[in-house]
Design a protein that fits this description.
The protein has one domain: Heat Shock Protein 90 (2-Layer Sandwich). The two termini are 27 Å apart. The longest helix has 21 residues, at 41-61. The protein is of the alpha+beta class. Strand 2 (66-75) and strand 3 form a beta hairpin. It has a 5-stranded antiparallel β-sheet. Helix 1 (21-37) packs antiparallel against helix 2 (41-61) and helix 4 (111-122) packs antiparallel against helix 5. It has 5 helices and 5 strands.
Length: 172
């Protein structure tokens, strides 16, 4: 019998986030949240990397005042999922570009080969390479999803994880 897992959630909503110092603070906050939920340091490291990348994108590409970053752990003890999601508003041109990049990333049969190709193609570019998100899938071994509704973009990364023993009653 599968024991249901209590859902854990961290949600941060910010207004007027143009401060790049917040990127480090957000990624550290997500990392500490994950550390309390899973005992595997590799998972914590992968989600720290994801939080860093998603927070950087929130700072660089948001045109609206409100941005959101949230992390959730759901499922059962035997089958849990950790998900990190970033939501912001963007211009139509940026949405079109990110949609092309994300669609190709999700469709790629070999995430590492896709990432390597993007590295070669990105060398002459100054911005918008899509490398960070591709790195999350290739090196971070995270699943990537996205949705676009009007001018709002939501990017999420997720992975199956083993919850820390004793969750939700974890002292450290």
């Amino acid at each position: 019998m599968t024991e249901p897992l209590h859902t854990a959630q961290l949600a941060v909503t910010m207004t007027a986030v143009s401060n790049t110092r917040l990127v480090s603070a957000l990624s550290t906050l997500v990392s500490e949240f994950c550390r309390g939920l899973v005992s595997d340091p590799s998972v914590v490291s992968r989600f720290h990397m994801a939080a860093q990348e998603l927070a950087e994108n929130l700072v660089k590409y948001s045109v609206g005042r409100d941005v959101k970053l949230d992390a959730t752990l759901t499922g059962t003890r035997e089958r849990a999922e950790l998900r990190l999601r970033a939501t912001n508003r963007s211009t139509r041109a940026q949405l079109d570009q990110v949609e092309r990049c994300l669609a190709a990333l999700i469709k790629a049969q070999d995430p590492e080969a896709h990432y390597d190709r993007l590295i070669r193609e990105a060398a002459p570019r100054e911005h918008g390479s899509g490398l960070g998100l591709a790195r999350l899938r290739a090196e971070g071994e995270l699943n990537v999803d996205y949705s676009i509704e009007g001018d709002q973009l939501t990017i999420s990364v997720h992975a199956s994880v083993e919850p820390r023993k004793g969750f939700p009653h974890v002292d450290r």
